[in-house]
Every structure is written in C-alpha cells, then in structure tokens.
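does this look right to u?? 5-O-phosphono-beta-D-ribofuranosylamine version
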Amino acid sequence: MKRKLGILISGRGSNMQALVAGSRAPGSPYEVALVASDKPEAPGLAWAAEQGIATFAQSPKGMSKPEYEAAIDAALRNAGVEAIALAGYMRLLSDAFVARWRGRIVNIHPSLLPLYKGLDTHARAIAAGESHGGCSVHIVTEELDGGDVLGQARVPILPGDTPAALAERVLAEEHKLYPRIVAEWLSR
Ligand code: GRF
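got this back:
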C-alpha cells in the first residue's frame, strides 16, 4: 500500500509538481492524496485539479487560526493523509497542529540549514560571502525551520551572483531533492 501524502501550498507549487512527478515514478512509496492551500487562487491548485488530484482551498480570512487549521486538518484526514509535505506554504503552523502531526510533516527550505532560517535566504548567503547556497528538507517542529534535516543539496555561489539567479539554480535542485527525500522518508 502506498503512503498517502498531503501537500500544502500557497503559490505556484513547483515543488508540489515535483512531488507529484515523484509519486508517479515506478516503485514510488507514496501517492499524493490531497493538495491543499490557504490561497484559493494559488496557481498550483488549478494544476493539481487538472491532474485529477483532490484539492482543498480554505482562506483563513474571517476565521480564527484554530478554526482555519481545523478545516485543513479535517480535509487532510478525510483524504486519508498520513504525512504532510509543505511546498511553498507561507503560513506558520500552530504548535497544536504540529503536535497533532508530530514527526509526520516535512518542509523544503532554500538554504543549507541550520544557516539562514526564515526569508531572503539567498540574498543573505550572498551578502555573507558564502561559497555555497542550497536547500534542505527537514522535519517540521514548533521551531521555524528547526527540525531534523533529512537531506540537503549544495549549490555553488558564482562570482556576481544575484539572489534571483541563485534562487533559480537552487530551485532546480529542490525539484530533485524533495521527491527523493520524501520517498526515502516514507519508505522507512
Ligand atoms: C521554494 O523556494 C521553497 O524552497 C520555499 O518556497 C518556495 C516555493 O516554491 N519553501 P514553489 O511554490 O514550490 O514553486
């Protein structure tokens, strides 16, 4: 039986698309049971729906955070989701949500954690004179970008690099790393 993965997105969802492609590779241990978003207009939701994947959208506007997260949680459970991958999901999950899914949520972050948690990672890595940027897949805990790292890809920073150019090269690595690490994680 394949493990059922739920993916949370807020935007274009290119990492979600890479995870869907990974789920379709021969021998994949997981299938994507739901793509959910806090942004009903997220382009990734329309893409997933076109692929025949179940989708769920819930704007948090006009609700409390617990109400909003209860709706997301119910959608994930109704879809039989066993593990969650965050893919450009731009909201902080509450401690209560993280506790309910303890050890079963992963995220991809565009830096070599524990370096450069939070936003603007590429600009900060370039400004600091780092030789490499990269990306990390990690378990989600209550601490922002703080859980155990499951895998990383390193990307050289080139002379004259800009945050946008580095981000593009790192993103290409994210698309390879995330499905590989999620498959390993869900094979355990
Ligand atoms: C990526 O840079 C990812 O590392 C970060 O958010 C961005 C999401 O891009 N967590 P996409 O929505 O997967 O295209």
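The chain has six helices and seven strands. idk if thats expected tbh
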